[in-house]
Amino acid sequence: MKKIEAVIKPFKLEDVKDALTEAGITGMTVSDVKGYGRQQGHSELYRGAEYVVDFLPKIKLDLIVAEDNVESTIAIITEAAKTGKIGDGKIFVSNIEKVVRIRTGEEDEEAI
Hints:
The chain is α+β, with helices and mostly antiparallel strands. The chain has a four-stranded antiparallel sheet, covered by helices on one side. Helices cover 20% and strands 37% of the residues.
C-alpha cells in the first residue's frame, strides 16, 4: 500500500475529485494548507499599503491506494490538476505499513 499526498491549486479540487471518482478511486482526506515553492509568494496592495504574501493557499489530498493503483492515480491527479503554470503543485508517494478500519477491524487493503 502507498500513501499519495498531492498539493494542488484550490480551484482544481473538484476536477481532481471527479476524475478520481470516475476512475473508481474513493476515499481521500482534504486539507487547506499554505505554502510556496518557486512562486515565492507575491505582493498585494491593501488600503494603499503594499505587503508580501509569502504563503499561498493550496489544497492537500491524502489517499491510500494499493500498489497496483499508484501509477494510474498519479496520472489521474496530474492530468486533472495541471494548468501548465507555475504553482500547479506536487505529488509525494510513501509506503504504508498497516491500515485498520476502526468500525470493522478490517486491515490493510480490505480497509482501504
